């Protein structure tokens, strides 16, 4: 199976002109053309599973269309979207911001999906999607170190409750490095697919491994790579893996 994780920055692009004529003005851009190029790139990778961080669920930028649904139609797949802000927060009811979140697009049958809310930070949503052989958790963690530390502990607790092997992926904003993820590595809970800490941000001159794919016992990670493309301010992560239960079933058949 192939997983692609990509913080696509809503399809708003990257580069110095993102901050012209004023800082972060690029977040107001129309996104259809850029998102089409992102979809073309991901489609060529032939993924079974896509984790989209910073996806747009249908703001004016995308002419009211949900990016996850558009990609699902392109891949002959299905999708689940979750606003990244707590559903009771003012931010989640604010125009444009209420359309910002994370999404899973997959060709695999989805058994269930849930949204969990972390106790700290502005970005609080942890998206859980259950499949036959494993469960995927998708996160976009806080920019603030203190809030992020608490979030990582809560994510670890939530993942320990899963009944199946787990893949945990997302944008961790771990500016202090992999050491921030230690609660997730304790007692063998997870391994890092990016064991060489290949940097993923910023895409033009990558220096920090902010994005991650972690996997638990029961997942056999076959291959990992970071394509050097500049459709976003982050680089994508591509992982080929096999749930160990699926491998045993294949040998038995």
Walkthrough of the structure:
- With 253 residues, this protein is of the alpha+beta class.
- The protein has one domain (2-252): Deoxyribonuclease I, Chain A (4-Layer Sandwich).
- Helix content is 20%, strand content 28%.
- It contains 5 helices and 12 strands.
- The chain has helices at 32-44, 67-75, 145-160, 182-185, 244-252, and strands at 2-7, 49-56, 78-83, 100-106, 112-117, 125-130, 135-140, 166-171, 191-192, 211-215, 219-225, 237-243.
- The strands form 2 sheets. The chain has a 6-stranded mixed sheet with strand order 3-4-2-1-12-11.
- The chain is globular.
- Mean pLDDT is 95; it is low at 247-253.
Radius of gyration: 17 Å
What is the overall pLDDT average? 95
Low-confidence stretches: 247-253
SSE string: EHEHEEEEEHEHEEEEH
Strand content: 25-35%
What is the helix content? 10-25%
Strand order of the largest sheet: 3-4-2-1-12-11
CATH topology call: Deoxyribonuclease I, Chain A
Number-wise, the strands total: 12
Q: Give the termini separation.
A: 18 Å
User: What would CATH call the class?
Assistant: Alpha Beta
The CATH superfamily label reads Endonuclease/exonuclease/phosphatase
List keywords for this structure.
12 strands, disordered C terminus, hydrolase, nuclease, Deoxyribonuclease I, Chain A, Endo/exonu/phosph_ase_sf, 253 residues, six-stranded mixed sheet, endonuclease, 28% strand, globular, exonuclease, alpha+beta, single chain
């Amino acid at each position: 199976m192939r997983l692609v994780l990509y913080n696509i920055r809503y399809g708003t692009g990257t580069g110095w002109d993102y901050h012209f004529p004023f800082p972060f003005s690029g977040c107001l851009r129309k996104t259809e053309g850029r998102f089409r190029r992102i979809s073309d790139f991901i489609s060529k990778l032939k993924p079974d599973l896509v984790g989209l961080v910073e996806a747009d669920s249908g703001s004016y930028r995308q002419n009211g269309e949900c990016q996850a649904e558009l990609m699902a139609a392109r891949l002959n797949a299905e999708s689940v979207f979750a606003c990244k802000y707590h559903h009771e927060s003012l931010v989640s009811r604010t125009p444009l911001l209420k359309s910002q979140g994370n999404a899973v697009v997959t060709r695999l049958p989805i058994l269930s999906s849930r949204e969990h809310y972390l106790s700290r930070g502005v970005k609080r949503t942890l998206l859980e999607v259950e499949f036959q052989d494993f469960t995927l958790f998708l996160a976009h963690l806080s920019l603030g170190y203190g809030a992020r530390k608490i979030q990582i502990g809560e994510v670890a607790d939530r993942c320990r409750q899963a009944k199946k092997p787990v893949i945990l992926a997302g944008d961790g904003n771990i500016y202090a490095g992999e050491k921030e993820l230690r609660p997730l590595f304790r007692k063998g809970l997870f391994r890092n697919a990016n064991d060489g800490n290949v940097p993923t941000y910023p895409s033009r001159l990558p220096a920090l491994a902010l994005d991650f794919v972690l996997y638990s016992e029961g997942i056999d990670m076959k291959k990992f790579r970071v394509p050097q493309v500049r459709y976003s301010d982050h680089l994508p992560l591509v992982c080929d893996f096999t749930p160990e239960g699926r491998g045993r079933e294949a040998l038995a058949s």
